[in-house]
Amino acid sequence: MDRDTADRLFYEHFDEIGGLVSSAARDLNPIEAEELDIFVKEKLSADDYRRIRAYQGRNGASFTTFLAAVIANLLKDFRDHLWGKVRPTEKARQKGTNAILLERLLRERHSFEEAFEIMTTDYSIAMSREQFEDLIPHVNLRYRVRAAQGEPLEAVDSGRSPEEMAIVNQMLERYCALLKRLRQICENLLPEDALIVKFRFEDGRRVSDIPDLLGMSPNRRRGKDLYRRLERLMGRLRESLEAGGFSALEVAAFLSNPGLGDGCDELEAG
After folding, report:
1. Contact by Cβ (8 Å): 44, 51
2. Which of 73, 130, 166, 242 has its CA 20 to 30 A from that of 52?
3. CB proximity list for 116: less than 8 A, separation 6 or greater
């Protein structure tokens, strides 16, 4: 199968892919399900649709059956991407599932305030603030690398060792440098493209929210059209960021973790 045929199949089955992803995401919270949808579509279109081009209709398998199998495998990759292959610490396991979840949220670079909100809202965990704070001594704090909105940078993980804080600050500075370069790139984009990039990568907005933010009229194609546009923009961003001296790994991590730039303006001003 050639690249053009794979491209046609991808967009002909775009809505079906979304349905298969929704089914695969039934154990995820709404935010994770949104991220899985983006992750799957990025992987299916990567490398000139390498995964789709592998479809040969062997043993009479339909394209839908093939897609379901591919998405099931991508779900495993997504869990590793989202949660990491690092196992929960022994302290967290002994404390229970809430401590394990908190440790994972910290690993995802959420602040304590965000973690509390996610656990009580997205996961509907009935937990007081006092009960939440009781979990903190039982998790590995080295995963927490960003401040909450309005939280002074110097207040982040004050209990860490100087060596750990140095690593955290280096990571934050590198992320902020990428964000600064992203803003410069946006100056040369069409106004609406620049807004899409800002909403997605600087503000961390969900893709499904962007059409409404742009005032796009509702129709069945707008999600498909926006994804194609975002796919094109991401390719341009990768090229421009790497041309600016950032490694492919740094750029991939930056684009995969949108909206983590809280505190960058304060860091630059300081």
Report:
1. yes
2. 242
3. 129, 132
pLDDT for 125-177, tens place per residue? Answer: 888 988 998 888 888 765 444 433 334 333 344 444 555 556 556 777 888 88
Sequence-distant (≥ 6) Cβ neighbours of residue 14 within 8 angstroms? 224, 227
Residue 216 CA to residue 223 CA, distance in Å, equals 10
The one-letter amino acid at 81: H
Domains in the chain: boundaries: 3-83, 90-144, 162-269
Identify which of 237, 156, 152 has the alpha carbon closest to the alpha carbon of residue 193. 237
pLDDT, one tens digit per residue, over 233-248 is: 888 898 999 998 888 8
Q: Are 146 and 113 in contact (CB under 8 A)?
A: no
Q: Where are the beta strands (DSSP E) in the chain?
A: none
Taken as a whole, the chain contains a residue count of: 270
Question: Which residue is listed with tokens 């994804």?
Answer: 227
User: Do 258 and 201 form a contact (C-beta atoms < 8 A)?
Assistant: yes
Q: Could you tell me the pTM of the whole model?
A: 0.49
**Do the Cβ atoms of 143 and 103 come closer than 8 Å?**
yes
